[in-house]
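testing teh design pipeline on a random one, pls ignore if ur not involved
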């Protein structure tokens, strides 16, 4: 290897020193030119390549940065800084596995490097290796107990694992160390929101907005908190302001669509979902949400098309499977409905509504044994689910087990005294058992809650007939005929 002359080395060092001064001033293009001159004169100094790699990183040219850091490592494999710098770029470009490998090498060379532990913890988090991430943060905190970033990053791990109380503890410690740590304040607000603690969440979001001058992401998160708590107007106001500041926020459009849908503003919901789909046509959840609007509008073919598209894009959308099952149930395709509900249950084994609706589908197929299993499972998960009691009672009614049917309807009515379907069905059991007075009482209560229920009028007419009340019976018969002659909305399985 040819050794450069002292004059050449001196010239290279001058270019190198000038490059570093330019770098410090933020003149990265000029610094790059000087580093190039230095490397041409002295191509075997690892620091030259490492520092030029830092310039490439600042310029956003990650490939060239990695090349220079790699050359620096080849020239000096024992310099931990070179591995650290390359790991940082790997992290930025979304290659956490390679980042973790480099940081492991850093820690072999310097086991007490808390920054390397912090960064490797983040790389493990990106790979959802939660145990390894927590171990790194614990070690780093032993070395740097006053570093708010360590508490914040560990809090993110707890948050990802839905251990919101521990996350709040860590975010709070980060804030105690740095009261203006905006991400920690915002994420603590997110955790309060997940716990249903709206006041605490709003306090944190408001504080974060003060510190960040109305950051659009914080406005968006506060909007979600309002949405989750049912404060729809406040949610829409926050989503509006967030979109004014960041018009390309697809999630703000879709979440505002959710708020419009819950307000019953279907046209506005559709407009927002359409915009979100235009921005991200490969996101299955957006088609699922738009499908829900069409479902509410009783446009079942459009809803079905959207659910189909949602599931082509993302087969893990339990809600889309469930709601497509509802449409198939309404169309009388009970086998297909069962298949869809089964997929929803596979993804979310405790989805009560899916067991209940699948039970109704099995019941329609006269598979009473399977229907009973589903209703029982729904009640195991949620013993106070009046609709599951109502479904199982209907099954008992189908099979002629009137005492069990009455017992279940009694429980359903106790849980929800204003369920017209339960009252009407219990009235039918009373009627079959010959207790026509009790039947009339239940039918009357059902009619008061739903004055357009033709079946309740028809059944009460039969009960009045048995009691010898001919005029009342005739009046109810006429009312039932009148209602049945009028167009009615279809009644199907409950949506998710």
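output:
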């Amino acid at each position: 290897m040819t050794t450069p002359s002292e004059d050449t080395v001196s010239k290279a060092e001058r270019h190198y020193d000038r490059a570093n001064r330019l770098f410090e001033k933020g003149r990265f293009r000029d610094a790059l030119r000087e580093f190039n001159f230095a490397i041409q004169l002295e191509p075997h100094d690892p620091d030259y390549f490492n520092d030029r790699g830092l310039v490439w990183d600042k310029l956003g040219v990650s490939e060239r940065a990695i090349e220079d850091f790699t050359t620096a490592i080849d020239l000096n494999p024992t310099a931990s800084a070179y591995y650290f710098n390359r790991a940082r770029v790997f992290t930025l470009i979304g290659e956490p596995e390679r980042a973790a490998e480099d940081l492991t090498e850093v820690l072999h060379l310097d086991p007490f490097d808390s920054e390397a532990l912090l960064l490797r913890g983040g790389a493990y988090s990106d790979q959802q290796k939660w145990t390894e991430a927590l171990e790194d943060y614990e070690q780093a905190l032993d070395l740097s107990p006053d570093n708010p970033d360590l508490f914040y990053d560990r809090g993110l791990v707890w948050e990802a694992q839905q251990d919101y109380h521990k996350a709040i503890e860590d975010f709070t410690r980060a804030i105690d160390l740095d009261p203006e740590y905006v991400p920690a304040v915002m994420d603590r607000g997110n955790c309060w929101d997940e716990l249903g603690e709206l006041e605490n969440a709003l306090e944190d979001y408001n504080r974060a907005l003060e510190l960040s001058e109305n950051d659009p992401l914080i406005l968006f998160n506060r909007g979600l908190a309002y949405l989750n708590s049912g404060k729809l107007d406040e949610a829409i106001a926050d989503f509006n302001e967030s979109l004014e500041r960041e018009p390309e926020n697809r999630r703000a459009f879709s979440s505002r669509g959710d708020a419009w849908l819950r307000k019953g503003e279907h046209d506005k919901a559709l407009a927002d979902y359409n915009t979100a789909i235009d921005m991200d046509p490969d996101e299955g959840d957006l088609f699922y949400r738009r499908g829900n609007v069409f479902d509410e509008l009783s446009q079942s073919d459009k809803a079905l098309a959207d659910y189909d598209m949602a599931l082509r894009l993302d087969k893990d959308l339990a809600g889309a499977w469930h709601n497509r099952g509802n449409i198939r149930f309404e169309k009388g395709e009970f086998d297909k409905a069962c298949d869809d509900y089964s997929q929803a249950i596979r993804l979310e084994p405790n989805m009560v509504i899916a067991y209940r609706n699948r039970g109704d589908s099995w019941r329609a197929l006269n598979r009473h044994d399977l229907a009973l299993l589903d209703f029982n499972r729904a009640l195991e998960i949620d013993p106070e689910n009046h609709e599951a009691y109502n479904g199982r009672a209907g099954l008992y009614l189908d099979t002629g087990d009137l005492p069990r049917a009455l017992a279940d309807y009694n429980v359903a009515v106790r849980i929800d005294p204003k369920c017209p379907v339960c009252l009407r069905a219990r009235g039918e059991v009373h009627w079959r058992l010959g207790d026509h007075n009790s039947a009339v009482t239940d039918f009357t209560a059902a009619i008061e809650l739903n004055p357009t229920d033709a079946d309740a009028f028809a059944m009460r007419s039969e009960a009045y007939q048995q009691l010898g009340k001919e005029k009342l019976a005739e009046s109810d018969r006429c009312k039932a005929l009148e209602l049945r002659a009028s167009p009615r909305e279809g009644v199907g399985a409950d949506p998710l």
